[in-house]
């Protein structure tokens, strides 16, 4: 296990956390809009000061790698890369949608089988999403989707799906299926990166600081609408 500094700036939430052996020991968060350029560095200074007071040092930097806002990710990733390089420690990339799924799992007590579908808004009826099981195994890869009343129809015949994130609110008003469920208030937060970053640290799944680039939400280019079948 390790001491990891976590940075999440993929949406309009600016969030920093520190974990020690998988336990969150520091957290600072602002959900009041796109203030990353103003808030991120002070939040990190507070996190590093907390580590210094505890006589600890970070073993790695974890940063949200998208999909997400170009501006937010650019600020977070460039800061994380600079810290990793300057401190001589590894850089860990954590997918934004998986981070959201960790938060969603903490808001459901269902024991039956179900799937998780975090959604990042890409304007109009467009989203980026992924389908995960409750162990966070990928059942359908991250992809762009144009939402309508038939979205996920095949999968919803087989399983209930929890939809959440800033892209799910608009889907709530068009889907009419009893297996479609919604969790409100789920945003990407640094503290929810912790189990994902710990797993990558243990596997030594690190990024090349010089060449790493996140998954920016640029031009939305969905392919021909596809059936939403899960992998066997």
Percent of residues in helices: 25-40%
* H/E topology pattern: EEEHEHEHEEEHEHEH
Number of helices: 6
How far is the N terminus from the C terminus?
A: 33 Å
- 3D shape: globular
Mean pLDDT score: 92
Uncertain spans, ≥5 residues at pLDDT below 50? 219-232
Beta-strand fraction estimate: 25-35%
Strand tally is 10
Major beta sheet, specifics?
A: 5 strands, mixed
Radius of gyration (Å): 18 Å
SS-based structural class? alpha/beta
How are the strands of the largest sheet arranged? 3-2-1-4-5
Structural write-up:
The chain has a five-stranded mixed β-sheet, sandwiched between helices. The relative contact order is 0.21. The protein is globular and about 55 Å long. With 232 residues, the protein is α/β, with parallel strands linked by helices. It has six helices and ten strands, in the order E-E-E-H-E-H-E-H-E-E-E-H-E-H-E-H. The chain has helices at 36-53, 70-87, 96-105, 153-158, 168-172, 194-202, and strands at 3-8, 14-20, 23-30, 60-64, 91-94, 114-121, 126-133, 138-146, 160-164, 180-183. Helix 1 (36-53) packs parallel to helix 2 (70-87).
């Amino acid at each position: 296990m390790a001491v990891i500094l976590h940075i999440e700036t993929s949406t309009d939430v600016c969030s920093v956390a520190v974990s020690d052996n998988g336990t969150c020991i520091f957290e600072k968060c602002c959900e009041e809009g796109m203030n990353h350029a103003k808030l991120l560095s002070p939040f990190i200074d507070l996190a590093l000061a907390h580590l210094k007071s505890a006589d600890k040092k970070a073993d790695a930097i974890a940063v949200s790698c998208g999909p997400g806002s170009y501006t937010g990710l650019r600020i977070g990733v460039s800061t994380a890369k600079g810290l990793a390089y300057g401190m001589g420690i590894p850089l860990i990339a954590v997918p934004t949608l998986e981070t959201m799924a960790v938060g969603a799992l903490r808001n459901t007590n269902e024991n039956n089988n179900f799937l998780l579908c975090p959604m990042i808004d890409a304007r109009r009826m467009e989203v980026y999403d992924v389908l995960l099981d409750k162990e966070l195994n990928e059942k359908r890869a991250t992809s762009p989707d144009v939402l309508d009343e038939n979205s996920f129809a095949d999968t919803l015949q087989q399983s209930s799906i929890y939809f959440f994130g800033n892209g799910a609110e608009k889907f709530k008003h068009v889907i009419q299926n009893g297996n479609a469920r919604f969790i409100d208030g789920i945003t990407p937060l640094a503290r929810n990166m912790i189990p994902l970053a710990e797993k990558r640290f243990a596997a030594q799944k690190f990024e090349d600081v010089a060449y790493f680039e996140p998954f920016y939400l640029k031009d939305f280019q969905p392919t021909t609408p596809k059936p939403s079948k899960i992998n066997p």
